[in-house]
């Protein structure tokens, strides 16, 4: 057992790696990585993220096709109603046997150039433990972070909360406040006095 293999996100792939045509079914829960969203919209670290799919071996790597279901917590940005529920997404990722990143191949083989286009693809990840382990921590984090909505509404026309008292305007559509501001009374009084003065001086 190496550190890579004991990671909670490790998927052992030794049976299928380097064997084109072989496929390994994935169906299980993985802990949510840290850093997905925030307190308003996100997935809490350690919550179970269900991953189902397959690792399919092709000539130059493993193709990971997966359906992800993550327990997302969220609240409406206007009325703060809790809107928790599963966030579902499908992803395809690639674990090349020869991984290149920023011009350096992790096996030190400088002749490999095919990895260059893969390095530019956001969903390409290196295999760990000499190619025996696919660690999906970074993959889950990247894909879930990207999937988090920037703005969540309980419904498209959510009326939000009353700015004065905070009451939910969806539940009280006729709610309003009689706004009476004494400052207008004071200004009206001043205006009347000024007008009276102007008339007085004009007639003089
Ligand atoms: Zn709302
Ligand atoms: Zn109000």
TrEMBL record:
Gene Ontology MF term list: DNA binding
Record Pfam families: YceD
Keywords, comma-separated and alphabetical: DNA-binding
Domain of life: Bacteria
PANTHER family, A to Z: LARGE RIBOSOMAL RNA SUBUNIT ACCUMULATION PROTEIN YCED HOMOLOG 1, CHLOROPLASTIC (PTHR34374:SF1)
Protein name: DNA-binding protein
